[in-house]
Amino acid sequence: MEKNSTITAGSLARTAVLFLALINQGLSLAGRPVIAVADEEITQLITLAFTVAAALVAWWKNNSFTKAARAGDRLMHQLKQEERERREF
């Protein structure tokens, strides 16, 4: 199997964190926060910060899920490597 032919662990981890943040946000809005803190306002702020941070990290990175996107990533990395090699000469 070729290198980079599957979805990267980073893409999966960022997506999993995003889903967990969204689930926590939904439960918190329903009055059942997973992250239990005594003060409700603090719980809401922590949950919101967690959700926003997870969303930004998850989708700031290039998350290549389709076969065509992963092929594009391989081509991009190949072109970048060729450019670095040209600069070395």
What is the terminal-to-terminal distance? 32 Å
How would you spell out the order of helices and strands?
A: HHH
Arithmetic mean pLDDT: 80
Look at the helices and sheets and give the structural class.
Answer: mainly alpha
Q: How many structural domains in the coordinates?
A: 1
The backbone outline, from C-alpha atoms, is elongated
| Proportion in β-strands | under 5%
Major sheet description: none
Cα-atom radius of gyration: 19 Å
Unreliable residue runs: none
Helix count from the secondary structure assignment: 3
Helix content: over 70%
Annotation, overall tally of beta strands: 0
Q: Which tags fit this structure?
A:
single chain, 89 residues, mainly alpha, 3 helices
Walk me through the structure.
With 89 residues, the chain is mostly helical. It has one domain. Helix content is 72%, strand content 0%. Helix 1 runs antiparallel to helix 2.
Structure summary:
The protein is mainly alpha-helical and 89 residues long.
